[in-house]
Amino acid sequence: MSAKYNLPYSHVTPETVYLNRRAMMAGFAGAGLLAATGAQAQDVPDFEIKGFDTTETPNTFEEITSYNNFYEFGTGKEDPMRNAHTLTTDPWSVEIDGMVERPGSYGLGDILAKVDIDERIYRFRCVEAWSMVIPWNGFELNQLLNLAGVQPSAKYVRFETLFRPEEMPGQRRPILDWPYVEGLRLDEAMHPLTIMATGLYGQELPNQNGAPLRLVVPWKYGFKSIKSVVKITLQEEQPVNTWKATNHREYGFYSNVNPEVSHPRWSQATERRIGGGLFASRIATVKFNGYEEQVGDLYRGLDLTKNY
Ligand SMILES: Nc1nc2c(c(=O)[nH]1)N[C@H]1C(S)=C(S)[C@@H](COP(=O)(O)O)O[C@H]1N2
Ligand SMILES: [Mo]
């Protein structure tokens, strides 16, 4: 079980450098740690820090890249790691259409030249009640939406994953109604916590994590964070997201992390942190995945037990 196949070099070095950089920023004896690993100071990526980061210990690169949900490559947790190497991610472009001033095909290179990439260490909570802490690299979705120019009549954002069955074996079978679709309310999409991720641990995003560009909405269940996005549509109607369309009794549109609202088949009160080991105790799930201070205002007056 190794993530190395998708990487130009071993993951060990960047992760070590990364953790040393964290230590340096925290004001610890980072220089000594750097010397001990033989890393050079100029190897340390220079990210902008916005203050959204959790201080919880991130999961390892191997954990984040070997336990995945990406049904386009199979339904097993290790299927994406094994199968996603077949995906071609270059060239890549995103079609932005609907209620925007500048509709069209946006090349990934052009997008990346115009946005600010930074690092976000976010908690990530799957609806299946497992969780991780992930150091993403990416940019705020609002920057991309502003490039296209959102018209005042737009109320929702619809996202679509690539449909390319010749490279995505799961799409050759009717596991889901392909392509995978997700959606956000416009204010959720414009929120500074909402990012398009392009990397992990300062490296290119591995295919199994949704390369080259995937949504990350840290206060919502993981299925909202749609991978390998090729289309973004600004619209007036609430988009029909794939999991809600598949089973509306079990999966909703909002899908905010909420320990008080059980899934019909299991409690959402606790979660299993990946990497904790077989005998680790479950940890309490926090409303909005711990981001209530930042996003609670978006849902004032909304009944979260009905709008789940
Ligand atoms: N296109 C697409 N996006 C997807 C999925 C998927 O199957 N297809 N799975 C979702 C689910 S259920 C989760 S929990 C996260 C998993 O992201 P990760 O594998 O990077 O942890 O991706 C989400 N985005
Ligand atoms: Mo999930």
Summarize the structure in words:
- The protein has one domain (4-299): Alpha-Beta Complex (Sulfite Oxidase, Chain A, domain 2).
- Helix content is 20%, strand content 21%.
- Helix 1 (12-25) packs antiparallel against helix 2 (30-37).
- Strands 3, 4, 7, 8, 9, 11 and 12 form a seven-stranded mixed beta sheet that branches. It has a five-stranded mixed beta sheet with strand order 2-1-10-5-6.
- The chain is built from nine helices and twelve strands.
- By secondary structure, it is an alpha+beta fold.
- It has helices at residues 12-25, 30-37, 61-66, 79-83, 108-114, 141-148, 186-190, 242-246, 292-295; strands spanning 93-98, 104-107, 118-125, 130-140, 156-161, 181-185, 195-200, 203-204, 214-216, 229-235, 270-273, 283-284.
- The protein is globular, with a radius of gyration of 19 Å.
- The chain binds ligand MTE and molybdenum atom (MO).
- Molybdenum atom binds at residues 69, 126-128, 222-223.
